[in-house]
Amino acid sequence: MVDDTPVATIIRPQIHIQNAVKSFSGRVVVDVDELTLGDHAIEGLIGPNGAGKTTLMRMIMHSTPLDRGTITMSNANGGGDVVISDLPTHWMAPHGLVKSNQVIMDFDKLTILDSMLLAIAQAKYEQPHRLFVETQVYDAAVERVHEYMEYFELGDPYRFAGSAGEKKLLDIIRCLLLEPRFLLLDEPTAGLPDDVTEKVMAIIRDLAVAGTSVVIVEHDLNVIWNLSDDVHFMAEGSVVMHGSPAEIRENKTVIEKYLGEGHV
Amino acid sequence: MNLDWLDAFLISGLFSVVVIVGLGLLLHLQLGLTRIANFGVVGFFGIGMYSFGVLFTKVDWPFGDLWAFLISLAFGTLVAGLSGLLVGWLIADLDEDGVLVGTLGFATAVFILATTEQDLTGGALGLGGLKFPYDVGTVKADEFLWLVIVSIVVALIFLYVWWVHRTPYGRLLIAIGGNEPLAKSLGKPAFRTKLWLFAVGSAGMGLIGALFGVMERFLAPENLGIDVTLAAMVALVLGGTARAWGAVIGGFLIIGFFDIIVQSYLPLPKEWYGQAIPNIKEIVFGALLIVVLLFRPLGILGDMRRDKLMRRVHG
Amino acid sequence: MLDFLSDSIVIGLTEHAPLILAAIGFALLYRLTGLINVAYSETITLGAYFGMWTNTTFDLNFYTVLLPAGLMAGLISVGTYFAIFRPAKKLNVGVLEMIIISFGLSIVLRHGLQFVFGYPVRFFEVPPPDTIRVLGVGVGSFRILAVASVALLSFLLYLFIQRSSFGLQIRALASDEDLAQASGIRPLFVTVLIWFIAGVAGGMAGAFYGVSSAVAPLLGWRQFLFIFLVVVVGGRKGLGGVIITGALTGIGLAAMTLQFGQVLYAQLALIVAFVVLLKWRSKRAIETAKV
Questions:
Q1: What residue ranges in chain B does DSSP mark as E strands?
Q2: The model scores a pTM over 0.90
């Protein structure tokens, strides 16, 4: 879906996490000293349940406030460094930072098309006095909307997302429509049928080639091994190691703590 | 103009229907779409009414009545809008309980100020001296014309609300009402949106309050009771919170029933009208809120149908 | 200056003791069942009406009618739970709808009681209370009784919730209903108990309000905003927080009333202060969203 852009000219956005700590009722859930995401086009983030992966993602989006520490994004939209841990959640998307959700998140009263138009519509059109801009928004979006509708074989856009899988897919499509420069995916394939997973992964690859940095949290490790260029392993709230997929899947600690003997 | 065919009670009955429908429509944007329970409707209504009334009667206007009237009307609307901005800022990021406290607190504050600031408002005694910006002969004709004018204003409010459903702004309001965290993660400024929603809605409520005050001709703190908020809420909930037509249908049904049919056309004993009927009216209002929300939460009209609506809009 | 301070404290605590009492009851419901019950204001009003009715009908003195008034209000409170709130919960009514339903119930009760008790404002028929001098301020004996009731009720609730096995159940229920049920707690019984205690507290508060002025349909509603403010602001720290916030509110109201010479200004200042406080607090604690 994306043109082949010469790879050499791409400057990828990165996220730098420093001393980020979060605890819930006294229990430390995330404690990351120093971590840079975005060195590689697609990075995986794995670890046992309760390792703090989802919380770390939410801290990056600042939908979960940090107890202390800073998170910066470099080469964000418009260039330069942005201390995103100082910004409210709704400023992430304009800076090109977007996250899909682990749990199913949807707008019950909005149709599939509504959801997509909502993601695309610019803030200047969404004001109480802008009464005659629906056509403009629709015309500007219709091509991309149809592209996704057809690619994922969604059928009629004027209906509500039905199954859990469809809602999950819609969540990812909304993220893609925001044209992310840095995309966080929290278990994107959970609940999706295999053929849809394949299609999502193909888009993600294209996006990454075109310059978007992608971080995937996933329990389906085949996705991680196939897709990512680099894997971070998280346990008990901190990132304990990172390396190429091959290194990680053969690492003793990882096998002990997560994969279990005989998995490899 | 010969208005013998028109009953004076019918004018006042229709007038209260129109006023409550107007308030219900604005409440629909807040409660129905964005899911903010504004319990301070009467506060915005009241501050518009009093700001208009005080400016109009207390200032020695150097020019004609009509201009003085219009300027005062604009002032009332503006003050209500600004207070909406303030209240919106206070409550936009609070939970349901904070919203209840904030809006109810604002309505109480307006009531208190209307009572204590006697130099301006006349206190509990009230404020007289309001009049129509025209004179077309009889009181009845004046009132009828005013009913027509206010109906036009409310019709315009309806058009706006109806149209909002067909705009990206309406979509955003529904999104924030449905799942605010998700809307934020898509880059939508939920706080700012609620702020302006409150400012615009409150300005409208203030305008309606000022127009109401003109018909009353006499402003008193009794006009600022919770029954105004209740009536607007009942009209909206009965008709359907999620639909633009909801407040219109609900308002004509329930306010129309009590203020027109019961008031003028039912053969009820005269002595009931003093206390029993207003009392029964409130009981029915309260009971309707309970029954509708328990058994048909989306009112007569049911849920919004974006699937059909959007198909029509994009034709 | 010292006089002003002691006057404020004595007047504030004695005159506004019913506020603390009502706030304790409201807080029980709010904290333990998660419900914002606007109709709680009518529990208070009904307490005043029941007290007045028993007082004037059977010619009983105020001390005798206080407890029956509370018990009646408690029963009505439980009645509203079974008639409205329990069915509503079973129908999975949303938080926002629940508030509006309780608002509707509040209106129904407020106007319904006028059919039962008549439209004119009613009064307790009691001899003027004995005046006791506290720190140089004359205080009516009913108000002393109100303070004593607050102290007693708080103490009993403290014992009940912190020490008894029911209290353990209540706390378990508040934190996780399913888990509580699974571990053999009878949620229905405990919930009814909470509604009853809350009703008794509200009803007694109503009787105190009624005896110190008049009994009118809006009696409870006039206090509701302040009760709610006290509970929302102080409730986070448990019942202790409610009592302290209620006491400070009473003292603040008394001090400002003395200062401004107008109780309405005191109320206005209080509303503004509390809403700003809520806003300020929300700024510091950004919610943890599930996104």
A1: none
A2: yes
